[in-house]
Design a protein that fits this description.
This protein is of the alpha/beta class. It folds into 2 domains: about 1-115 and about 145-195, Rossmann fold (3-Layer(aba) Sandwich), CATH 3.40.50; about 210-365, no CATH class. It is about 45% helix and about 15% strand. It contains 17 helices and 8 strands. It has helices at about 1-10, 15-25, 40-50, 55-65, 90-100, 115-125, 125-140, 150-155, 165-175, 240-245, 260-270, 275-285, 295-300, 305-310, 320-325, 330-345, 345-365, and strands at about 75-80, 100-110, 180-185, 190-195, 210-215, 220-230, 285-290, 315-320. The chain has a 4-stranded mixed sheet, sandwiched between helices. Strand 1, helix 5 (about 90-100) and strand 2 (about 100-110) form a beta-alpha-beta unit. The chain is globular. It starts with a helix and ends in a 6-residue tail after the last helix.
Length: about 375
């Protein structure tokens, strides 16, 4: 958030866009275009060219030709429009997935939420920018996603111009069967190159305040863990992407996890995002004290011995992590194994002791989820 404040209060738009292009692609993957198909190299060559009628004509012809190929045979597709103007984005990405052959490439472009915010702070003084941006946020970010307001929003806007955070677009691509191989700004629009790696996901998605996250429970069964939303929509599909490009920080979390919203960071610091987990406790899938429920991707980072031991117990809402405060993944595993050893000998006494140590660290030492 601090680096974005430095960005938004600049006066020169071109200078701000240069800063933004570096900030948003800091952890983005880079693609070796030399090994790319000739068709993709030609497309990107023209995409980089200065805006002109010749450039527009080439890109429009490329779109028409690429989408005219029979299903399952296209090597490279260029999106027909920027994603902000497409109402049913997932449906559109599914059609692209069906059109492409395995390993084929899809090129999309869109205006990011950070660019939208920048435009307000470049145009208005800070006081008015805060006010205007707040209303714009509600109109273009909240209304299109709520069941009660989305029809009204699209009726008023006619041609859709909703604002799209970068993590949401990347998550939608992974959800629809793509792998992101390259990202960067071309001129003033964010461009993503994605490769088809599988069929689209069939899980139903929603934008509610409470989210359901698939986690590993007792006996290795998958359970749905309830939490207040702290990340952008579809961020849960970026676990592998973020791990490959960001790595882990001290404490086993992802470093510079831009999937978390500003509101979400506050919820995590106050621990309020964990409250819906009581639903899991009432359902019998979790208990109050125990190791944290892990995603399948994070679970695979653990040593086999620890994974085998973990699935013998229900996960907990208050993990031993906040009692010991380990700093590395190896130390986290050692902390959990110590908890298991103590729990096997004295279950109630162990959870009672861990409960008060965890609460003490949270209240008096301000240990929070990041």
């Amino acid at each position: 958030m601090s680096r974005f404040k430095n960005l938004t209060y600049r006066e020169d738009f071109d200078l701000a866009m240069e800063y933004l292009s570096k900030a948003e692609t800091e952890h983005a993957p880079h693609f070796n275009m030399v090994a790319a198909p000739q068709q993709l190299r030609d497309l990107m060559y023209w995409a980089y060219m200065p805006r002109s009628e010749e450039r527009s004509r080439y890109l429009n012809e490329f779109v028409d030709k690429s989408w005219a190929v029979p299903d399952g045979e296209a090597e490279v597709l260029l999106a027909k429009d920027h994603l902000n103007a497409i109402r049913y984005i997932n449906r559109y990405l599914r059609e692209a997935n069906q059109k492409l052959k395995d390993g084929g490439y899809l090129v999309v472009a869109f205006d990011t939420a950070m660019k939208r915010r920048l435009q307000f702070y470049i145009k208005y003084r800070r006081f008015w920018a805060n006010i205007f941006y707040s209303f714009d946020f509600i109109w273009h970010r909240v209304f299109p996603k709520l069941l009660l307001t989305r029809r009204f929003y699209y009726f008023c806007t006619k041609r859709e111009r909703r604002v799209l955070p970068r993590p949401e677009v990347l998550g939608r691509l992974y959800y629809c069967g793509f792998e992101v191989v390259a990202e960067q700004y071309i001129h003033d629009r964010y461009c993503v190159i994605a490769r088809k790696v599988q069929e689209p996901n069939e899980e139903q998605r929603h934008y509610g305040l409470i989210v359901k996250l698939k986690r590993i429970g007792k006996d290795g069964k998958l359970i749905w863990v309830y939490k207040f939303r702290t990340m952008y929509a579809y961020s849960e599909y970026l676990q592998t992407y973020v791990y490959d490009n960001n790595n882990l920080q001290v404490g086993g979390k992802f470093r510079d996890d831009y999937r978390i919203t500003d509101w979400g960071r506050w919820l995590r610091k106050t621990w309020l995002d964990e409250l819906p987990m009581f639903i899991n406790i009432f359902k019998g899938h979790m208990r109050l004290v125990g190791v944290r429920p892990l995603s399948e991707q994070y679970f695979e980072l653990y040593d086999p011995e620890v994974r085998e031991r973990r699935i013998k117990y229900k996960p907990g809402m208050l993990p031993p992590f906040y009692a010991d405060m380990p700093e590395t993944l190896q130390e986290i595993q050692e902390s959990e194994m110590r908890y298991f050893e103590a729990y096997d000998k004295h279950p109630f006494r162990t959870n009672w002791r861990y409960f008060w140590k965890i609460v003490g660290n949270m209240v008096f030492h301000h240990k929070r989820s990041q």
